[in-house]
Amino acid sequence: MRSIVAFACALMTSALLVTAPRAAEISLSCSALGLEHEICRAGADRWAQQSGHTVTLVSTPNSATERLALYQQLLAAGAGDIDVLQIDVVWPGLLGAHFIDLTPYAEGAASGQFETMIEANTIDGRLVAMPWFADAGVLYARQDLLDAYGREMPQTWQELSETAQYVQEREREAGNDDFWGYVWQGRAYEGLTTNAIEWIASHGGGTIVDQAGEITVSNEAAAQALGKAAGWVGTISPPGVLNYAEEEARGVFQSGNALFMRNWPYAWALAQADDSPIRGKVSIAPLPRGGEDGRHAAALGGQSLAVSRYSQHPQIAADLVIFLTSQEEQKRRAIEGSFNPTLPALYDDDEILASASFIGELSDVFANAVARPAAATGQDYSRVSNAFFNAVHGILSGEQEPGAGLQSLERELTRIKRRGWTQ
Length: 423
Ligand code: GLC
Known about the structure:
The chain is of the alpha/beta class. It has helices at residues 2-19, 36-51, 64-76, 92-95, 103-106, 115-120, 143-148, 157-173, 190-202, 220-232, 246-254, 266-271, 314-324, 327-337, 350-355, 358-361, 363-367, 374-377, 381-396, 402-417; strands at 25-29, 54-58, 84-88, 122-123, 126-127, 130-136, 138-142, 180-183, 258-263, 282-285, 300-307. Helix 2 links the parallel strand 1 and strand 2 (54-58).
């Protein structure tokens, strides 16, 4: 009799185990630019409530370059510290081997995504991350000041620089000594790679390495573009711009001390927030063309979510990824944080367009954004980008002439490439 009871108890316990799996604690790294941390927290909490699991947010550095270094260190050691990682659109080739294939968990979720985004996150046939939001470089302008001084939104870099100079001088005469014409990201990090690729591509100077893997960076148009940008430092842009990342540029612009700013869409929700001194005074436009025959060029950015191979709970972690990248969550994030969705279906959603109309108006900018050469250079991408932003930083700070700087960069890239890029 006793053994029957014991058997029944054992059966019941195992049934309980099957029907009520222990709640897991999932750690999630999401970046913290502006409102990002808060908005990520709200999404994670919603999932935790409905799933019964808990989520701990892991803070990582704001700089994409520093975050990559941290991830590389953790993942190379096989550390399970982070279950779900927010990764940059240029990292799948670098980190993909450390992530699980999300295909079995996606249940069709991938088919609602932009195809190019899914391609960028597919390495050797494995879907290593699910797209979360899209980024493209855009020009923010103080529309109130353009109107007050009777100036148009600049179409070329030359026009931007003239208008910036003009308004800066007048604002300073009016007593605002801290006013600058143009702020952007000039620190030696991944953000500078995106800014500089925009200047160069808009002048017709290519994308450092072309799609076939040829190194193209040392050319006249690229030298011209970088020479122009070097001329901004200390004139229309503060000397400190050489140490600015996204948030430093936004700090100056949002406090009312700059006419133009180059940044990603996230800065819109913050500029328009209730406590923002520039609320209602800002407009967004495509970044300027190189010249009359140049093009508007926005660097393609964006972030995805991946599950670490070293996670103790890959299935639960994948469920969190599918939840956070779902249509409902992407819509909430677009409305609350102006994060561009990666789902085409949301691009004509009325509520999103009402809170961030540029998402619809600049759809061409996003569709034609310029990709960094991450796919062509594979495992070597971070070395290529590091060499590029360091060379550009040297040119901007006047240590090197553009032509000579690009020639030595080309030699360095040739050494990195050796007989071919590491795929
Ligand atoms: C943004 C973009 C990312 C880019 C980074 C550069 O986070 O989404 O693609 O690499 O900025 O700072």
